[in-house]
Specification:
Layout lengths: L5 E2 L3 H4 L9 E3 H11 L4 E4 L6 H9 L4 E4 L3 H15 L3 E5 L3 H4 L2 H9 L4 E7 L15 H5 L5 E5 L5 H13 L5 E7 H5 L1 E3 L6 E2 L11 H13 L3 E5 L2 H4 L3 H11 L2 E4 L24 H9 L2 E5 L5 H4 L10 E6 L13 E4 L2 H19 L5 H13 L14 H12 L4 E4 L3 H9 L8 E2 L10 H11 L5 E6 H7 L2 H7 L5 E6 L4 H10 L21 H7 L3 E5 L5 H10 L5 E6 L34
Parallel strand pairs: 3-4, 3-5, 5-6, 6-8, 7-8, 11-12, 11-13, 13-14, 14-15, 16-17, 16-18, 18-19, 19-21, 20-21
Antiparallel strand pairs: 1-10, 2-9
Helix pairs in contact: 2-3, 2-8, 4-6, 4-19, 10-15, 12-15, 13-16, 17-18, 17-24
Length: 604
Amino acid sequence: MTSTNERALPSSVAARAAKPAPAQMTGAQAIVRSLEELGVDVLFGIPGGTILPTYDPIFDSERLRHILVRHEQGAGHAAEGYAAATGRVGVCIATSGPGATNLITAIADANMDSMPVVAITGQVGAAFIGTDAFQEADIVGATMTLSKHSFLVKDGAEIPARMAEAFHIASTGRPGPVLVDISKTAQNQLIDFSWPPRMNLPGYRPITKPHSRQIREAARLLATASRPVLYVGGGAIRSGASEVLRKLVDLSGAAVVTTLMARGAVPDSHPQHCGMPGMHGSVAAVAALQRADLLVALGARFDDRVTGDLKTFAPGAVVVHADIDPAEISKNRRADVPIVGDLKQTITELTVALAAAHDQHGKPDLGAWWKQLDELRTTYPLGWTPTDDGRMAPQYVIQRLGELAGPEAIYVAGVGQHQMWAAQFIKYERPNAWLNSGGLGTMGYSVPAAMGAKVGQPDREVWSIDGDGCFQMTNQELATCALNDIPIKVALINNSSLGMVRQWQTLFYDGRYSNTELETGYESRNIPDFVKLAEAYGCVGLRCSQPKDVDETIRKAREINDVPVVVDFVVSRDAMVWPMVPAGLSNDQIQYARGLTPEFSTDE
């Protein structure tokens, strides 16, 4: 019988144990066998001394595809991209010391954005732990606050259970990264292997079923509100709730906003969708939150980039907050109706309860509310003005890319202006089409994450939308793509500067452009030449600097599907992201364009 602190593997995992395990094997072989039994098909990594015992049986595995990256950070982001595109656990592997520490940025990124990732690292021999041995680093301690959980394995007999537990933790409840640090001693140890193992996770009990009373109260509020808004966060994507969410949206008649992490959870074409809220959100989305009398937050965490000055955020709204993670409830904004549970199940039950509430209370008259929002959508649409320097508008390039590649493609952004423009000007009609580093804001995310997404979804067109600053941090993974037949496409939005930082210097530092010029081709210098760089990595390099050539260049890039393609779009460095709520200010102070503040208030 299973004890209160032990549990069997989920049946879906146990069912994959089709062939009997040999009586004995090394810990390293157990790592590989565990990955196979857990259904892993690909892992991204780089070998090194303390993980070398595991790389030997990887060589013999017929079920695991190992992709040799050029930097461990790339392995971590590739695992994230794979997870985001497929919904499955992404896996990365590295050696101890600098190999493990190079994974930290990707682990922290996955933690902020709730990505199911398992990172496997080698560790020095058990007897040497704590002695400052060669390439020793306390990676468990270093990632303790940056991961969902971290394991240190010194006994090889523990490997099957720890591996199973890592995948279970990463993929259940609120998804997140789990580190498994395995000493070289454990990898070389001869052990008895059996599958499935027993998992021992005292205290780990994710709540999946929401409380029915809170569901009924949320439904009552939604049925009687005059200005309701469904505030949809990334949890809607992670829980696979998009289909049931659509039913709730249709039934409620409420306005919907989708955060940066939730783009595609509700189709942009849906008539109730008001856009993305936040610092660079649409005026209609920001105004809807500020004017609402009811906010139903679904898998959202009231991030500062959405709320602006928290004291002035949605001042007249009653708040229903539904999330799988109880730590998020009332963390930033007090919830009047807290609901802890799996979001897909929560939304399903809320939709049933809302239909019953309509029978009891009638459907609300939201005509006046939609009249206000429609006026804002009409008066303050997303757009851009021609550039003063005559160079291409980056917004135009990104919009045309989205229109030509279409909603079935996957778009993976770096961080900065191009990220915001990609979130604004590409229309997202389905979940898992938009990948980006939202919470941590990691420059260098795009190329390796696009690589991971393409591996996970090989039949989809995958575009890395990157800036010239971000691109130079991880573009070495183009070599990985070229050598492993991973034909991603890169739309390089090249404004020869750290664009978002430059925008802040323009607005808040009197145009004092301290150390934001990258000299990647805007004036006379061209370092590096991105076309030549692409060719050096075995990719096709294209350049476009005229609006008349944008469509043809994109079409040419789309026709090349046997090798990666890099398109150097030379754009204006003076283009800015609008709308904008300056950091620390109230959302009521959103600027539609420089010097233009929309006329709306929270007064009824």
